[in-house]
Amino acid sequence: MQSSENSWVLITGASSGFGREFAQQYAAEGRSLILVARRLNELEMLAEELRARYAVDVLVQQADLSSIDVIIDLHRDLHDRNIVVDILINNAGYGLQGAFLDEPLESSLAMIDLDIASLTAITRLFAEDMRARRKGHILMVASLLSYQGVKNFAVYSAAKAYVLRFSDALHRELKGDGVVVTALCPGMSDTGFASNAKQKITPLLRRVMMQPQPVVQAGIRALQAGRMSVVPGFGNKAISVLTWATPRRFHQGLMEHVMGV
């Protein structure tokens, strides 16, 4: 995956957390970047930092990806500018912790719009371009919670289960067309997601919390290797194995304990 004059990495949700770390690591490889998020100031500051440190091309696109029309406009604009997206990092996402019936309906629907509908739309548009070129890479940021329904994360875990299964299917569908699709399933990570999701951080969660750098590194390596999916971290891998090896009442109860619910 060497850099070329017109080969770009598009990272959604790039202003913080995993998205920011993806930008740092790809910039260190000398890749040209398209950073997409709602927060323009954060994007511009990150872009300036990456240009100065790594001497790479960085485009900033302020966009609310919960709107399908915005995604279509973004794709059209890049196409009109002859910008080729060789790597798509589907990182933008939204989550909340809380009992399903205690959360406003609009919050749950907003999660579905961004985590499912918008991810599907942006994948459809850029994957079609990749298939036409018979070359491309797509990384879907799912979650360890995608392996099971978790109390007080009902909509989020279900949405991330969609991301994982969608990614699994596309991995097989597009492999013969030269397009690699990989799912990254991180556990608890120090990205700021917990505070945004109003999530309670238990002492156990704090002990197993990973930093963004090794999580993103695992995702990039898995994508480069053409893997179907990756779960970073030994403890997270153990939980994913337990999900398949134990009855639902056991592993769901275990996850409730781990997540402090």
From TrEMBL:
GO terms for molecular function: oxidoreductase activity. This is SDR family NAD(P)-dependent oxidoreductase. Gene3D superfamilies: NAD(P)-binding Rossmann-like Domain. Coiled coil: none annotated. One of its GO terms (cellular component) is membrane. Keywords: Oxidoreductase. InterPro entries: NAD(P)-bd_dom_sf (IPR036291), Sc_DH/Rdtase_CS (IPR020904), SDR_fam (IPR002347). Belongs to the short-chain dehydrogenases/reductases (SDR) family. It holds the Pfam family adh_short.
